[in-house]
DNA sequence: CGGCCCCTCCCCCTCGCGGGGGAGGGGCGC
DNA sequence: GCGCCCCTCCCCCGCGAGGGGGAGGGGCCG
């Protein structure tokens, strides 16, 4: 019994990427795509997917509203995994409250995406540790969760210092001078920051810093 | 909180023109004028401007020396934008080396001047002296005005496409796939973008994209 | 027509970045 | 005392990023 997946994302390339990953698996199949939340109810009743991978941020009807609508109207609704580019995305939190079964970051490794789809299809609620900690750290009532969280609230002071300077466009060498430490130390801190933010490089770290409000434009 | 601007130029008409442009803005205000670099330190301590627009070429104490003097003597010195008539003005580079935060050509369009003032007032990551010098050195005298603000309006469509994807955290290879061109082409575009934005690397380009409103968080 | 810009793609090269290890000292809580 | 985290610094290594060139085709415009 193959798991039927519906992709909902306004970016065609994202859909294409997910489809490629999913269709390469024997037990998974993409049965349809939608570029807008408004198309989802129709697609669901027509295609009867088991799992929906849905972007939170879309024009017209966003992922949260689409999730609510499906869960409210469809009997035996499919599992919904909310997909987002950035962790600590308010919309993700809202989507989970609306009844989504889990969420994924777009930069998540393919294997993990596949695993996530299978898990929710089998009835498991999916929440990756990193994602849970990110949410707990950012939205929890100041409670320090067991284990450190991969978000800037859980960055050490030094790491936050480094991230701020990275987000000013400074190189590792420049940061080293500014903090009066060796470039090696800066590299260590930057590496830790990237790991905690699940960013691939400093550019993505800067984007996250802006998107999460760690820093603000002007 | 309005941004307080001090004008320093030996030509009264230039000062008047700048004042007219700046005072027309709600968030900007000219708090004083000086016709000579020698008057600047006193004006700074008296008026506490956020930004100084300073001509490089002035009788008695020129803009470079005035810049040095302020940065050496004033605690929490204001941001200094060096103003010049000529592109590739040697004095400009000296001023930047002396610690000025950016420079403008007098013929720059008013909107760009305003934007530049706001940008430097916001933080120290806006104009990158090293990159400016590199640009001027490579582009040569026939190049387009190096003093003009880093304007995405000047980017070609393709370059803007590339910048948008860079600002999503994508690598050159990923962008190449997304735009169906070769990685080499992407490198060319990215290089052009960096040059036009006066950014040293893609990280700085992303910062500028956020700070100028080319892209917005959320 | 001849320039000029834009887009495309190629070569070379250097170097900073990030990943993989590890190591030592200081502070804090158990 | 011991463990744990943080900060500091070191090694090696591969790779992508940028800078320096150049080149060809298409479109637009004087």
From TrEMBL, chains A, B:
Superkingdom of source: Bacteria
GO process terms (BP): phosphorelay signal transduction system; regulation of DNA-templated transcription
InterPro entries on file: CheY-like_superfamily (IPR011006), NreC/VraR/RcsB-like_REC (IPR058245), Sig_transdc_resp-reg_C-effctor (IPR016032), Sig_transdc_resp-reg_receiver (IPR001789), Tscrpt_reg_LuxR_C (IPR000792), WalR-like (IPR039420)
Alphabetical UniProt keywords: DNA-binding, Phosphoprotein, Transcription, Transcription regulation
Pfam families: GerE, Response_reg
Domain annotation Response regulatory: ranges: 4-121
Keyword Phosphoprotein recorded: yes
GO function term, MF aspect, one: DNA binding
Entry annotated with the keyword Repeat: no
Domain HTH luxR-type: start-end pairs: 147-213
Modified residues (4-aspartylphosphate): 55
The protein, known as: Response regulator
Source organism (scientific name): Actinomadura litoris
């Amino acid at each position: 019994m193959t798991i039927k997946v519906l992709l909902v994302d306004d970016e065609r390339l994202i859909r294409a990427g997910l489809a490629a990953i999913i269709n390469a698996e024997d037990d998974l199949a993409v049965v349809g795509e939608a570029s807008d939340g408004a198309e989802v109810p129709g697609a669901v009743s027509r295609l009867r997917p088991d799992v929906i991978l849905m972007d939170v941020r879309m024009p017209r009807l966003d992922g949260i509203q689409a999730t609510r609508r499906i869960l409210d109207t469809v009997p035996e609704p499919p599992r919904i995994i909310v997909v987002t580019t950035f962790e600590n995305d308010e919309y993700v939190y809202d989507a989970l409250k609306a009844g989504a079964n889990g969420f994924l970051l777009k930069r998540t490794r393919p294997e993990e995406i596949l695993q996530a789809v299978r898990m929710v299809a089998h009835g498991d609620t999916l929440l990756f540790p990193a994602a849970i900690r990110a949410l707990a750290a950012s939205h929890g009532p100041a409670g320090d969760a067991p284990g450190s969280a991969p978000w800037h609230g859980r960055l050490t002071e030094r790491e936050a210092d480094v991230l701020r300077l990275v987000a000013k466009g400074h190189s590792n060498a420049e940061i080293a001078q500014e903090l009066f430490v060796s470039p090696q130390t800066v590299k260590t801190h930057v590496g830790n920051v990237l790991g905690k933010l699940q960013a691939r490089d400093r550019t993505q770290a800067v984007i996250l810093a802006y998107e999460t409000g760690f820093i603000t434009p002007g």
